[in-house]
Specification:
Elements (H helix, E strand, L loop, with lengths): L8 E4 L5 E6 L5 H9 L3 H8 L4 H12 L6 E8 L2 E9 L6 E8 L8 H15 L4 E7 L3 H9 L4 E6 L2 E7 L4 H23 L3 E5 L8 H11 L5 E5 L5 E2 L2 E4 L11 E4 L3 H14 L3 E4 L6 H14 L2 E3 L5 E4 L6 E4 L7 E8 L2 H14 L3 E6 L8 H10 L5 E5 L6 H12 L4 E4 L14 H5 L2 H12 L2 E3 L2 H13 L8 E5 L2 H13 L9 H10 L5 E2 L3 E2 L6 H12 L6 E5 L4 H6 L3 H6 L9 E4 L7 E5 L4 E5 L2 H19 L13 H14 L4 E2 L2 H10 L8 E3 L2 H11 L6 E6 L12 E5 L2 H15 L5 E6 L5 E10 L3 E8 L4 H4 L2 E5 L4 H9 L18 H17 L3 E12 L2 E4 L2 E5 L14
Parallel strand pairs: 5-6, 9-10, 9-13, 10-12, 13-14, 14-15, 18-19, 18-20, 20-21, 21-22, 23-25, 23-26, 26-27, 27-29
Antiparallel strand pairs: 1-2, 2-3, 3-4, 4-5, 6-8, 7-8, 11-12, 16-17, 16-19, 24-25, 28-29, 30-40, 31-34, 32-33, 32-34, 35-36, 35-38, 36-37, 38-39, 38-40
Helix pairs in contact: 1-3, 6-11, 8-9, 11-12, 12-14, 15-21, 16-21, 22-23, 24-25, 27-28
């Protein structure tokens, strides 16, 4: 059992208060004693089963004894004072620890005990503890409720006036959901002073009109914000009509939010002044903070429990009726609406605000995250989920502080409202150099796409595409599938639109005879209705309305794309074909979108009393937006799946193997064949039979034992660091007798000499589909499972898919069906189908291995031979590095 000293962290209580969680030790005796001495006699009795002061002294002495094997004490602090304590101790060698928890009297019912137990459970799991046990008086309802509300499995045994509780520490989905729910409540409460402040002060609003602070102050004043507004300036009495004070301490009322727009060198000191005055949130637009200044700013925020947006940002806005706050230095006020927007780039933020205003969508709230020291996209998703105003979430994130927690939050939020992002940093310049196949395949683009796909996030490539898709999601119902009918009054425009749909992955199906006949009965002579539907230049407004309405109500259609060009015929007759799209007597059940090549704007929303139709100037933009909405509809139809339980997994043994290797190799490295095989065996990952041979005679003996019915074997050279055997000609295939085995071994020794430490001998494998499976631990995103076409050309063809671990059943299905080679698994061109069940098990077991072992930097299984009767791994490389991964779901602030 190993105890690990963790750095202190800050986390939110249920009421939004920030507390510091740290390890308690020898210096804390007096603070622990004070905690107990200030308890009421009744609470002291509930804690120790008696009110004897000696119990408090013994408890303080136990903590003061310091760190020791099998013991851990965690303290919760607020403003430097101990407000809670949780301990565990393993009384005898084993995996069950006895726990206790105590909370200061005036901090009850705020979530202190629950938060401490979450962190204590995480520390215990790391140390190999699998269960907590605790004794409590049966009348101590508060502590019993804490145990049962954790989300962990609890069993209770009553013995007279006492209750013995056992808490299993398995971190399953139920527990993660409970932690997530508690974190969501705390997060939303903590953001109230930031996004719904009752008062705002602007610090740094200059007397001259050109300053950023003055621009923000002007936007607050010229908007319709109803709260108190003040300014801080060391010399001015008023700025832009707002009363100014020399310092935050001089303000007549303490504001919830302080906007700081001053030189970087003064930011940390001013933040400290704000905290001392009782300010609850900071918006720092100042840029250029160095490391010392940044640490000072964050230290002030954490000490005083202030949430922070920025620094280096555009500002924030909230258009809710009871708020109407515009604390940005944008040129125009954000228009009110229902889109929540969070960006890291101020320039992108301005572009999105302008685009949403032009479309008439507007924003519910806007936050420019800037350098994202504290408040992140994760926080904003949770806010929009619960604010009652947002029906569309728009994100532009250049970095992810906690991608796995973000993914879990996004999966939940995306079930309720669409979540869109611009997928930045896709270029090859972002590729990370790596030696193994897996790491080479796992590009930053692939990793981000895996995150977005699993979380149900709609990822676009440009801001224009972002707004195109937002317009369609805002205006029309989702396309339930990919079948599109193209309608046009010009044949050439219809063909281009059909091509655009095909390029976007949509289907333009031939229409059935009955539907064709019905359409032709509505349209002018000369019309065609095979799809594209050419309504001709002679079509009238009523005819077009009837045609589109028929298609949008028909079960053979998922969406209708109407492309219209201006004609002299329509002009002469006064027909308004565009109006035909927005004048349906009732909303249509399937999406209708227009392509108007003569339109100046890239996308507009055509509004009528009952209908809003997005109109695009280019069919490709319309088709891409439609494809995104169809993908979202498909994602929503999938029931959330879980990570399966796997039998015959020896996690403890695997961790011991890893620890033993890293003890002898502190800097990490590639495992030798024996250690690799042992680690794979812990997860029952199938391997072809093999033998290790140190010399020629051992190789012959191994070949005689392993040779199959045809007598053929394979010999592979090995030395530490050998990665690409084929490229270095470090293997011999199809060896049929002892003389060939000896000749092959002599060849390898001649060419590689003392560098070679031995050879691996395997039987020649049967034929099958060569696949590739692997794991790479991304420093930011965590473990990523990669799957695709294998063999020597795996990197050249780059036919891979990836998903973040742990994998659900849906994730595994996506991995098996996403690569271009996936038809080979289903019996393509008469070939036998692969055992997909065995492949799924392989991917699940790789995922489990990666999740269990943060030290697993790379695992490269290539090739994996798949056939109708199962799979086997022919070659595996595994690299370990010293690493301790933090639980991504543990509640803590950045």
């Amino acid at each position: 059992m190993t105890d690990i000293q963790e750095a202190p962290v800050h986390a939110l209580l249920g009421d939004g208060t920030t507390v510091r969680i740290r390890q308690a030790g020898s210096a804390d005796r007096e603070e622990v004693l004070r905690l107990y001495q200030e308890m009421s006699p009744e609470n002291l009795r509930l804690r120790f089963f008696s009110a004897n002061p000696a119990s408090a002294r013994k408890a303080a002495d136990r903590v003061a004894a310091g760190e020791r094997p099998g013991y851990r004490a965690l303290a919760a602090e607020y403003a430097g004072h101990l407000v809670g304590l949780a301990e565990y101790e393993v009384p005898t060698p084993g995996s069950t620890a006895e726990i206790s928890v105590a909370v200061a009297d005036d901090w009850h019912h705020r979530g202190v005990a629950t938060l401490l137990l979450e962190h204590l459970a995480d520390a215990a799991r790391t140390a190999g503890v699998t269960a907590f046990s605790a004794d409590a008086l049966s009348e101590n309802h508060d502590v019993l409720r804490v145990f049962h509300d954790l989300g962990l499995r609890v069993t209770s045994h009553f013995d007279g006036p006492e209750v013995h509780c056992t808490v299993e520490l398995t971190e399953d989905n139920a527990y993660l959901s409970a932690v997530e729910a508690r974190g969501r409540v705390a997060d939303i409460v903590s953001l109230q002073p930031l996004l719904r402040p009752r008062g705002v002060v602007v610090i740094g609003a200059g007397r001259k009109p050109g300053s950023v602070g003055r621009a923000i102050l002007r936007n607050i004043r010229t908007g319709t914000y109803t709260g108190l507004v003040h300014a801080v300036h060391p010399e001015a009495e008023a700025i832009a009509g707002v009363r100014a004070y020399c310092s935050v301490a001089d303000l007549p009322q303490v504001p919830d939010l302080a906007v700081i727009a001053i030189p970087a060198a003064s930011v940390d000191a001013v933040a400290e002044d704000c905290g001392k005055a009782g300010v609850r949130a900071l918006l720092v637009v100042s840029a250029g903070l160095n490391t010392h200044q940044a640490e000072g700013l964050m230290g002030a925020c954490r000490r005083h429990g202030m949430r922070l947006v920025g620094p280096n940002c555009l500002g924030l806005a909230n258009t809710e009726d009871r708020v109407h706050l515009d604390a940005t230095f944008a040129a125009r006020h954000p228009g009110p609406g229902t889109a929540g927007v969070a960006v890291q780039s101020g320039g992108v933020g301005i572009a999105l605000l302008d685009g949403l205003a032009r479309l008439g969508i507007g924003v519910s709230s806007f936050v420019s995250l800037g350098d994202k020291y504290d408040v992140s996209g994760n926080d904003m998703l949770q806010w929009w989920e619960s604010d009652g105003h947002t029906d569309l979430a728009l994100l532009h994130l250049e970095s992810f502080g906690n991608p796995r927690a973000f993914s879990r939050t996004a999966r939940r939020v995306a079930r309720a409202i669409p979540v869109l992002t611009v997928d930045a940093s896709r270029s090859e310049a972002g590729r990370r150099a790596a030696a193994s196949h897996t790491a080479a395949a796992a590009t930053p683009t692939m990793t981000r796409q895996a995150l977005f796909t699993q979380a149900g996030i709609t990822a676009t490539r440009t801001i224009g595409e972002f707004l195109d898709t937002a317009a369609l999601l805002h205006a029309q119902p989702l396309a339930a599938g990919t079948k599109v009918v193209v309608v046009s009054n010009a044949g050439g425009a219809g063909v281009l639109a059909a091509d655009a749909c095909a390029d976007a992955g949509l289907v333009v199906p031939t229409l059935g005879a009955d539907l064709v006949d019905e359409l032709l009965g509505l349209l002018p002579d000369g019309a065609t209705a095979t799809n594209p539907v050419d309504v001709t230049a002679a079509v009238g407004e009523e005819q077009l309305r009837a045609c589109v309405g028929l298609l949008a109500r028909h079960g053979a259609v998922d969406a209708v794309l109407v492309t219209l060009v201006p004609t002299a015929v329509a002009a002469a007759t006064g027909e308004d074909l565009v109006r035909a799209l927005t004048s349906a007597p009732e909303p249509l059940p399937r999406p209708v979108l227009a392509v108007l090549p003569a339109q100046a704007a890239r996308v507009e929303l055509l509004r009528a009393a009952e209908t809003t139709v997005p109109a695009y100037s280019d069919a490709e933009d319309a088709a891409r937006a439609l494809a995104h909405t169809a993908a979202r509809a498909d994602w929503l139809t999938r029931l959330p799946s879980s990570v399966p339980d796997l039998p015959n997994v020896e996690t403890g043994r695997a961790r011991d193997l890893v620890a033993a290797y890293l003890d002898g190799n502190p800097e990490g490295g590639w495992l030798d064949p024996q250690a690799t095989a042992a680690l794979l065996a812990c997860y029952e990952i199938p391997q072809i039979p093999w033998a290790w041979a140190r010399d020629e005679d051992e190789a012959v003996t191994a070949a005689e034992r392993l040779a199959g019915p045809d007598g053929r074997v394979v010999m592979k050279a090995y030395w530490p660091g050998l990665l690409h055997k084929s490229e270095q000609h470090a293997l011999h295939l199809d060896l049929q007798n002892a003389s060939q085995v000896r000749a092959a071994h002599r060849d390898l020794v001649t060419r590689f000499g003392d560098r070679m430490t031995g050879v691996v001998v395997q039987p020649l494998a049967e034929r099958g589909t060569e696949l590739f499976a692997g794991v790479v631990q991304d420093e930011v995103f965590g473990p990523l499972v990669v799957f695709g076409l294998g063999g020597t050309a795996t990197e050249l063809l780059a036919d891979h898919a990836a998903r973040l671990a742990p994998l659900t059943e849906l994730d595994v299905n996506d991995l098996l069906t996403s690569p271009r080679c996936s038809p080979l698994l289903f019996g393509y061109a008469g070939r036998p189908a692969a055992d997909r069940g065995a492949l799924g098990q392989l991917l699940h077991r790789l995922s489990r291995m990666a999740s269990d072992l943060p030290q697993l930097a790379d695992a490269d299984l290539n090739p994996v031979l798949a056939g109708p009767h199962g799979i086997t791994t022919l070659d595996t490389r595994i690299r370990l590095v010293p690493r301790h991964a933090h639980d991504p779901y543990l509640r803590r602030l950045r």
